[in-house]
Write a structure and sequence with these properties.
By secondary structure, the chain is of the alpha/beta class. The chain has a single domain, classed as Rossmann fold (3-Layer(aba) Sandwich), CATH 3.40.50. It is 32% helix and 20% strand. The protein is built from seven helices and ten strands. The strands form two sheets. The chain has a six-stranded parallel beta sheet, with helices on both faces. A four-stranded mixed beta sheet has the order 8-5-6-9. Helix 5 links the parallel strand 2 and strand 3. The longest helix has 15 residues. It is globular. It starts with a helix and ends with a strand.
């Protein structure tokens, strides 16, 4: 991950002061966004905080090169058109071995997890989608816990979307005997 840190260092708000070691006293005094980032990184996720759209575009292009892929796979039409306007290579062809780029419903601070719905994954379950993910989220999508995330979803939609799923393991566990699914995840968090 040091390779990624060199390319994606943030020029604006910094989360570098967050240690990778667990410290209950430290997490007790954190803002909700810091708490999310802390737990997300603890879970093995790679976190990027682009300063502006140019920084976001440069970050995505560098990530394409780092992941050694030609294009991001996109299921959501709005992201497909948005990334095309930025000249980011995308494809709408499903390929389980590719890298899926998309949005999410919520970033859950108390566990550093990411909640998606059918809006982002269509009819696919997480296990049916590529293991490598790029998530684009806004700072106002950070919520304290899953209960609050579900309340927000119910308030956002007239009819809540199906297929509500949460990802929380972002690096291969060292001694995982339970067979939990993990997702190599790169999160671009954009301030709004």
């Amino acid at each position: 991950m040091d390779f990624i840190k060199r390319f994606f260092s943030s020029k604006s708000k910094s989360y570098e002061h967050l240690n990778d070691e667990s410290d209950d006293e430290q997490t007790g005094s954190m803002e909700i966004d810091e708490l999310f980032v802390y737990h997300f990184k603890q879970n093995g996720g790679a976190f990027f905080y682009p300063e502006d759209m140019d920084d976001f575009k440069i970050g995505l292009l560098k990530l394409l090169k780092y992941l050694d892929i030609e294009a991001f796979m996109v299921l959501e039409r709005s992201y497909f058109h948005f990334l095309n306007k930025l000249n980011i290579p995308v494809t709408d062809q499903f390929d389980k071995t590719g890298v899926l780029l998309g949005g999410c419903e919520a970033l859950i601070a108390d566990e550093g997890s990411i909640m998606t719905t059918a809006v982002h994954t269509k009819e696919y379950r997480n296990i049916e989608l590529p293991q490598r993910r790029v998530i684009v989220a806004l700072t106002n999508q950070i919520t304290s816990n899953k209960t609050q995330a579900l309340i927000d979803i119910n308030n956002k939609y007239e009819k809540p979307p199906a297929n509500i799923q949460t990802m929380s393991i972002f690096a291969q566990p060292k001694n995982d005997l339970s067979g939990n699914k993990w997702y190599e995840t790169y999160l671009f968090l954009i301030e709004n």
